[in-house]
Each structure stands twice: as C-alpha cells, then as structure tokens.
Amino acid sequence: MDVIASAFLDDNGEYKEIECVRVDGATDEGRSHAEVQFIWCERHVNRKTKVTLVTTRCIGDSYLNRVELQNGCLSRGHSNTFIPSTLHGVPYSENGEFDKKLHGKNMSAALDQYISRVDGTPCMKTVIHLARGAENHDFVSRRSKLMVFIKGNKTEKQNLQKEDPTLFKYFSEIWKVRDNHMDKSLPEKYVFMLRCCGKSTFNPTSTVSGSFMICCDQCGQWYHGKCINVTEVEAETIETYVFNSCKEH
C-alpha cells in the first residue's frame, strides 16, 4: 500500500538493499515455518535485496507491539456490531451441498459492511482506515499447491510436478535460493536471515537464468557483481580481485 511504501525505500526512492523486519512470535509469522520462509525468500529474490532479516523480540511479546494497541481501539470501534453471515442467503443447496461460491459472496458482502461501519475508528490521535485484503492474489490461489510442495508426501509432490511443472519449478528455484542464502548459524525461532552467498541463482523477472559473478582470488569465494558493486565490464579490467574482508586479513 502507498501508505507504507516509503518504509521500504531509501533516500533516493529506490528499494532498500537491506530489509530488516521485526515481527511477533505468533504462529502466523513464526520465522521457523517453511511457508513463512518461502514468502520472505520470494520477496528477497524479487526485490533483489542483499540481505533480508526477519527478527522477533521473543516468543510471547506481541503485547509490546503498537498493533496490539490498535487492535484494542478497533475492538471498541466494532463493539455491538452484528453482521449476518448469510446476507445473500444460506450457502447450502436443497440437498444439503455446500455452495462455496455463495459462501464467498456472503463473506465479501459481510466484509464490505464491516469496513463501512468501522472505518475511521479513532486511535492514538488519528483514525484507523480499513481496506480489503487480497482475494485473487497469487498468494491465495497457489497456496494449496505451495503447501503440497512444502509438506506433501513424495507421491503428492510428483503429482504436482506432473500437473503444474512450471509452478513446481518456480517453487523449487525459490527454495534453492532459501537453502543457499539462509544463515543457519542463527537461532531459527528468533532470526531468519537471507544474504547473498555467491552461488548462481535465478531471476524470475528476467529471461537470464543467472547473473554476473566474480571470484575472489584470495579466498576462492564467488560473489554476485551487484552485491559488491562491480560490473561485468569493470571486471574485465581487474587483473586480480580480492574481496574487502580478505584484504583485512
């Protein structure tokens, strides 16, 4: 959203190369969960960040976040509000079958009613504005397949690969970046960090499968050119390249 977009931009209006995000310790945001790690890794790849760092204070400290105060204000705003869940009718047919489409229509209508009644609730010398969440976003439509890729058994994964090979390949490439970029020396329950590793990776927004890399002649480690501010043209003129940290030793 435009309201929070500036938090992810630097002084030049460009996306930050290092993103530090602090979340609470709830299960929906837990850094150790495979689905959460996949989503953050996907952002890490798409934003081309050098480092993506997701941390928490400690498990159980959600009440210290300002969002909990906001939730308290919101609860006052919707107190005594009753919105039926069957505004467009009961989502069951005459023979008792569940009508998923009608159920979705009911939920959408109820959400519109909630927003119209609660939007503008006072909170901390300002007001809370509400907006509809994603319904047809890729995160929603592909989630069931992502869960098969992450948690499914061998047969389920093979079926997914056969039915949707393109999506399966994409999941695999993102997960490979996660395996290569994740700092596993950190306590996973509290810190999830992704950083450039120097290994070849893929670019989902480009037809080029890899990116320019240069090898340190002292330690033998490979680095992405963008991460060390060296272009392919500049590298052609460098007779011997030594990474900064190696020069200090």
TrEMBL record:
Keywords: Metal-binding, Nucleus, Zinc, Zinc-finger. InterPro entries: Spp1/CFP1 (IPR037869), Znf_FYVE_PHD (IPR011011), Znf_PHD-finger (IPR019787), Znf_RING/FYVE/PHD (IPR013083). One of its GO terms (cellular component) is Set1C/COMPASS complex. Residues 207-245 form the PHD-type domain. It comes from the Eukaryota. One of its GO terms (molecular function) is zinc ion binding. One of its GO terms (biological process) is positive regulation of DNA-templated transcription. Pfam families: PHD. It is found in: Nucleus. SUPFAM superfamilies: FYVE/PHD zinc finger. This is Chromatin modification-related YNG2. It comes from Paramuricea clavata.
